[in-house]
Amino acid sequence: MSVTAYLNGEFQETDACTISPLDRGFLFGDSVYEVLPVYHGNIFRCDDHLRRLDYSLNSINIANPLSDDQWKAIFSELIARCGLTDLSIYLQVSRGTAPLREHSPTNDMHPTIFAMTMPPRAASEEAAEKGVDVVTTDDIRWSRCDIKSTNLLASVMLGMQLKKEDVYEVIMIREGYVTEGTSSNVFAVHGDCLLMPPLSYKVLAGITRKVVIEIAEQLQFKCSEKELTHTDLLNADELWLTSSTRNIVPVIRIDKQQVGQGTPGKLWHKFSDALVRLSLP
Fold it and tell me: I need a surface site. Which of 217, 255, 265, 272 has the fewest CB within 10 A?
């Protein structure tokens, strides 16, 4: 299925888009990306996504090729051409194309800028109402998971694992401590406190993670960063996954063991409702 996209200054259908095979994003994964949710025709937390894009680009020494206003103009045109009011926007910036395949980049390249619309990927009503099953595994990714890189081979491999095991997500553990899911951050409710792994090179600074912390402050519910173990997950009263495309998803089983009461908890309902209200125009 072809959709409207933006590639290096032109709006065109994805079927017509062409990128050089020598593009460093294609050859090396030398590129970063963002996925922005759109509700009722409005991008949710656009500025937060653009700040994270800046961080990822700066981390790999690529200058942001566009200003915020230029990015927003592209997004607005993609939304208008798409014809949907609830969707996602995928954007990707690679270092560009070089004449030869060499690890060390040259200084005269121009970034490749690509963006397109995608159907919304919100968690299904059944997942939200009944909760989901997850498993844990070793975190086999590289050491700079704070950069939103397109180099996602480890996540692809874990994605095949979750399909094989028929679970919703795989939560990764590195050196005994929880990092995150393949495409989500992790929260654990213990009594009167909401806990999450601290931000570091091992954990992506999720936008919905940030919003959940803000909601906790508004609701005056204690929220803090803590190194979480597998046992902490098993003993949680509630366990959540958060992401920009799926919002807050309740986990009811982990590694085939029940979490809390085995149903989405009261606190999840309260936070989920608050997030929905924030997304309204």
Answer: 217
